Amino acid sequence: MSNINELTKLFEQKFVAHPWHGVKIGNKMPEEVRAYIEINPNDQIKYEIEKESGHILIDRPQKYSNIVPALYGFLPQTYCDKKVAEFCMKKSGKTGIIGDEDPLDIIVLSERNIDRGNILVDCIPVGGFRMIDGGEADDKIIAVLKDDQAYGDIQNIEDLPSKVVDRVKHFFLTYKENPNDDGSDKKVEITHTYGREEALEVIRLSHQDYLDVYGDVNEKFSAALGKVLV
Fold it and tell me: In this structure, is residue 227 part of a structural domain?
């Protein structure tokens, strides 16, 4: 076992962790989480993680005038699948909802102008939007940057300025909108704006969905090393 632990530490020192699988969501999750940021309000390009490699991929130039209003990314070691979809149906009263099979999205508010992505930030979840995109559960967690001068003490979405929440909500409802929509595009709707406790539950469920699909990455890595050393 000592050899396995030593090799694991060497791998961690030599190689950069995969942002989705290799980075931990945080020891204090779900009350405090570590988010991976893909894009920021200065970006004119929509970036997203390339799931297999972990590198940042250009998804597309921003097509229209919508600009992300805060730091936007996802929570490592989360996945929106059966448990998230079931919770969405329970809370929304809708049926036939499935998970979008992506990491859980998060937007992080800060007073500071953070002008880069591909970074990790520690943040405090305060609420979220129950978003359904073309029949898929696509929750958006709202968080505040830990120790932020303006937002750092906020614990619940109801304590945020309503205009800030409205701006974020408008972005999510319109960022895929096509001015020439002929009705064929998938429809996005936000059925509820929810508070801190419900956001924490969505995070828990998405982490459990991840474990159900991918398992504990550290345990699987140690087990694989153990087989090599036998």
Answer: no
Q: Is residue 6 part of a domain?
A: no
- Beta strands (DSSP E) in the chain are 33-39, 45-49, 56-61, 71-74, 98-99, 105-109, 119-133, 136-137, 140-145, 188-194
91: domain CATH number is 3.90.80.10
Q: What is the dihedral of CA 212, 213, 217, 220, to 10 degrees?
A: 90
15 has a pLDDT exceeding 90? no
Residue 45 lies in a domain: yes
What is the model's pLDDT at position 7? 74
Number of domains in the chain: 1
Range of the domain at 31: 19-177+186-217
137 three-state secondary structure: strand
Q: Is residue 109 part of a domain?
A: yes
Task: Give the pLDDT of residue 182.
Answer: 56
Burial class (CB in 10 A: 0-12, 13-18, 19+), 113: exposed
Between 9-23, 80-94, 175-189, 211-225, the lowest mean confidence (pLDDT) is in 175-189
